[in-house]
Amino acid sequence: MNWNRILSGVGGILAGLLVAFIFFADVGQEDTTASSSDNQSKAEKVYVPYGELDEYYMFASGGHSGQLFVYGIPSMREIRTVPIFTPDPATGYGYDKETKEMLGGYTWGDFHHPAISETEGDYDGEFLFANDVANNRIAAVDLSTFHTVDIMEMPNMGGPHAGTFVTQNTEYIVMPTRFARPLGGEYEELDNYEEEYKGVVSMVTFDRDAKEFDLAYQIVLPPWSYDLSDAGKKMSGDWIVMTTYNTEFATTNLEINASQNDRDYIVLVNWKKLEEEVENGNYNELNGEKLIDPRDVEGAIFAVPVAKSPHGVDVTPDGTRFIASGKLAPLMTVFSFEKAFEVIENGNFVDEKFGIPILPYEEVMEKEVDPPGALGPLHTQFDDKGNAYNTMFISSEIVKWNIETGEVIDRIPTYYSPGHSAAAEGDTVNPDGKWIVALNKLSKDNFLSVGPSHPESADLIDISGEKMEHIMAVPTDPEPHYAQIIHRDKINTIEIYEKDESKENAVWNQEDTRIVRDGDEVHVYGVAMRSKFIFDAEAERPDAVMVKEGDRVFFHITNIDLDEDITHGFGILEYDLNFEIQPGQTSTLEFVADKAGTFPIYCTNFCSALHQEMSGYLLVEPAE
Ligand code: K7E
Ligand code: CUA
């Protein structure tokens, strides 16, 4: 059966023993043929008439595409792809000097968890942070321009999968590591795993004015694997909670060897305490970075047992509880911060593991929610009425339940195998309770076939009533992991880049354009405008540039069309170069003219009726 094949191909989570559950996936899927009046009312919910706008933005991670996909909710129309870790010729991202340097030579990233900057536990809509599991990076997207503005590669990390998440005032963007690794990534035998390998959590700060990251300090932990984690809110605001797996220290065949223990741990770390220690100079230095072992700090780290191999933990909007879901245990476990703090206060630890005090499960756990037949709970989202929503990877559904009572209120099928879901304002202290989008790993037979690999899919579900209502499914680009949904009123985009006379390399008037030669460097200070390039206004042909083979060429181009949406492109034939200049933006293209010949230059972004005429020449004179 097709379904069987698809599911067994998912690997990882669907280890052999779980294949037995596959049949649950089809059981309970409702008849999807709705009456035409039903369909009409659903269609009306997502129809945005011309001239009106979607109420929400959804920012969805693009996994190993390294990109961010932006959707309008409820229409589910994709409105923008923002390149973050991957070069993108459509915008010239990774081609112009600044973004090329930012990418640091990498051509891809693996982006899982977007985090919008927060103020008092609420999305403030200024920046969005992104993690790159593949190359230990963190990135910031400025939500006034939808441009990536900074990327930092973090040392000592082994794949920061569990990030990004932010503390409630974005004091820190937290990046826990997935793969244990020796510090600095040094060579070390796997036999020495327990002693020499570490799990590292990076605590990163972001300066909103300078738009720059800084690595404040790193927390050094036992070589467990850390999975999706969260920051506390309100009463728990000084804490971060992190799920762990592979507390078995398996170094091979993790699928089996890291699933031995009946319980793994949720680690609670008090970042305020660590911050204080670091400020007081109590840290170790390694290659200029500040490393701190929380076990050396009284009251900074604790752990509580949790059902085996959890995939994530989420803090409730009011900050009083944290909820863990286990890939290999079919239940959601609700823990109380208040109870945890009490145990910590009284010092009633049951055990110690690797120097970490272990809190008694029974005393910190508040309830276990185990809906019959619901399998593979992964992640939790919230509404404004005290309810939680869990995606069930294996039984392909979302389960709605009440946090206070643990009562299961409703269940709805998804199409198929959701990883995360995203609720409107779902990670904030004030979720909106309006929509939830299931981010599915499989689409099976939902859409026109595109061959053996089908698109991923997303289900839009209305959660405003007691019963959830499935509204529509759309294909998505690979690979959706997590998304955040923010009200459109919180996003304030600029219309053009402000004209800034002091901006380096910018030229604002045609008369100031010039070509400056300095040895074998050629700097072109030019403008792009409808519908021409001017590189040197005084030259016989202002749109031609003559260089010598081997010259290092810099095109500093300013788009002086200060009108919204008038973007110019700049492509050079056969040089594999293209970039984009948005209104009021100055960008630099740097390259070595290593091919002699005659190369047309043209505007690649349709900008005016005479866009086709917007061109020039690069003449590269052969070297002797
Ligand atoms: Cu895909 Cu959050 Cu990386 Cu779960 S993660 S599904
Ligand atoms: Cu400028 Cu097309």
Descriptive keywords:
624 residues; mainly beta; Methylamine Dehydrogenase, Chain H; Immunoglobulin-like; 2 domains; seven-stranded mixed β-sheet; five-stranded mixed β-sheet; 10 helices; 41% strand; globular; binds sulfanyl-(tricuprio-$l^{4}-sulfanyl)copper; binds dinuclear copper ion
Task: Give a short summary of the structure.
Keywords: Copper, Metal-binding, Periplasm. The protein is mainly beta and about 625 residues long.
Please, could you describe this protein's structure?
With 624 residues, this protein is mostly beta strands. The chain has ten helices and 43 strands. Strands 8, 9, 10, 11, 12, 16 and 17 form a seven-stranded mixed sheet that branches. Strands 34, 35, 36, 38 and 41 form a five-stranded mixed sheet that branches. It has a five-stranded mixed sheet with strand order 37-43-42-39-40, with no helix packed on it. The structure holds sulfanyl-(tricuprio-$l^{4}-sulfanyl)copper and dinuclear copper ion. The site of dinuclear copper ion has 7 residues, from loops.
Name of the CATH class of the largest domain: Mainly Beta
Largest sheet: 7 strands, mixed
Euclidean distance between termini CA atoms: 68 Å
Query: What do we call the CATH topology of the largest domain?
Result: Methylamine Dehydrogenase, Chain H
Q: What is the global morphology?
A: globular
SS-derived structural category: mainly beta
Radius of gyration (Å): 27 Å
Low confidence ranges: 1-29
Helix content: 10-25%
How many helix segments? Answer: 10
How many structural domains does the protein architecture include?
2
Mean pLDDT: 93
Count of distinct strands = 43
Q: Could you state the CATH homologous superfamily of the largest domain?
A: YVTN repeat-like/Quinoprotein amine dehydrogenase
User: Which molecules are bound in this entry?
Assistant: sulfanyl-(tricuprio-$l^{4}-sulfanyl)copper, dinuclear copper ion
CATH architecture of the largest domain: 7 Propeller
Based on the structure, what is the oligomeric state of the protein chains? single chain
How much of the sequence lies in strands comes to 35-45%
